[in-house]
Amino acid sequence: MSRLRRRGFTLIELLVVIAILAVLIALLLPAVQQAREAARRAQCRNNLKQVGLALQNYQEAIGRFPPISCLPAGRTYEPYSGQARLLPYIDGENLGSLIDWNVSSEFVGSPQACKQRVAIYMCPSEVNDRARLTPTLTHYPLNCAFNEGTWFIYDPVSGAFGDGAFAPNQCFLPRDMTDGMSNTMAASEVKAYQPNLWDSNKPSTLGVAAPADPSGLTTYFGGTFDSNGHTEWIEGDVHESGFTTTFPPNTRVPYSVSGITYDVDLTSMRDGESTTAPTYAAITARSFHVGLVNALMMDGSVRGISDNVDLAVWRAAGTRAGSENAQLE
Q1: Up-side HSE of residue 163: CA atoms within 13 Å toward CB?
Q2: 211-247 pLDDT, tens per residue?
Q3: What are the angstrom distances between the C-alpha of 226 and each of 196, 197, 198, 255, 266?
Q4: Is the separation of the CB atoms in 234 and 84 below 8 Å?
Q5: 277 pLDDT above the threshold of 80
Q6: pLDDT tens for residues 76-86?
Q7: Residue 156's CB: how many other CB atoms inside 10 A?
Q8: CB of 214 closer than 8 Å to CB of 254
Q9: Is this prediction's pTM over 0.85?
């Protein structure tokens, strides 16, 4: 009986097959990544829609929108954020029960709440979705920040406040949004663990115009640098739970420390930390979605805003009563 010879793959044939597989993977991987990012972006938009619904439910129940913070005159303070006040309206009753407003009106009185992750405030694309430990408290970050206007935030002496949809000590009504609810931003994405400067060089008086571009912000560089911006969802400071429209989305603000250049935010004085110094802030809307940020409008709609949006239009969308053209789309 004759023997059948079994012929296997040659080395060249094997290499050709491997090369073909590599090409196919190289073609498919970007498509898979794009599909995953599209799903994450959709989930991010849905989270913002849920926040918008919570704001509407809060307004119907309480009669007004929540303040970004409550700061008593004549003393320093650690205020709760507007996001903390929304907890009962985002299926967060259990978390909300960890805050006893009658025991303490400062967030440091709720250490168990501080460390909780609030899923609706996190973007699925966030790369730093992790808790931050401090010597006294454990905090959790957020990616959903409330709109506090163009540049000026709060003056503890006069009580004056900024031009955004949310402000310290203010509970606005829908009728206060004279630019129109659909033309006024409520919230936008920000990045967790954002490098920032706080208690920096300060404008010399009230009424100082916002810098036109990042180079104009260098006058105020100074103070303390860290990478802990937007790591405390429970705190009402603008660099933790707010953003401003000083610059368009994802604008880079370069600042060098020890030979490393960071993209920074700036707060002239942390709101609540001084009884005399006003707060100005350039807290830029940022995201991990290429070329845009998702933004929530006061009417509950969500829009993807391009990094290339005109600065005047972007700032107009950040004011509640500026009578400007805020046609973002």
Answers
A1: 19
A2: 999 999 999 999 999 999 999 999 999 999 999 999 9
A3: 6, 7, 8, 12, 11
A4: yes
A5: yes
A6: 999 999 999 99
A7: 24
A8: yes
A9: yes
